[in-house]
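Please, structure for the following, as tokens.
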Amino acid sequence: MRIVRIALLVVGAIVAPFSGFVLGATAAAVLARSLTGDPAIVDTAIPLAGIAGTAAAAIGWTRLLRLAHYRHLRRLRRSGPAVQGKVVAARTSFAKNPRGPGHWTVRLQVAWTDPLDGRTHEASKAFRFSERHGEGARDFRRRHPAESAIGVLPGRRRGFLLDVPELPAWWDRR
């Protein structure tokens, strides 16, 4: 599973923005040359459209990951009911970013019994909230205190999802 995370990171950090830049720059070159024919406008349009393509690719990549997570959640919900789990521990932390807004991280440690083999599993999931959504992080933490019940959707290869509407942190989606 680690190789999948590394591949997603490489694609999201390098391949998608590079592809967005190339597609934006190519579109700008073709359109600017055919519409104006002026080389100065073409030379100006290429980097601007490339930067816009990079931004669009980064936004599109995060939207695609969100869509994939919710589709996976829907598939697990259809495959069977959620197993009743218990929140063993819930921790909230705040990380301040010196160059911009910080973020809240709520980590839930969950234990559940697998209905297929009867073994008890324990794992954790992290949920990340931006600094301006601090109230959402506190509300999420209040809804899932330690010793409370929570729905767990077991997946393949030791993966699981919690049956909550919030999206886990990008590094913890399996």
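The longest helix spans residues 39-79. The mean pLDDT is 86.
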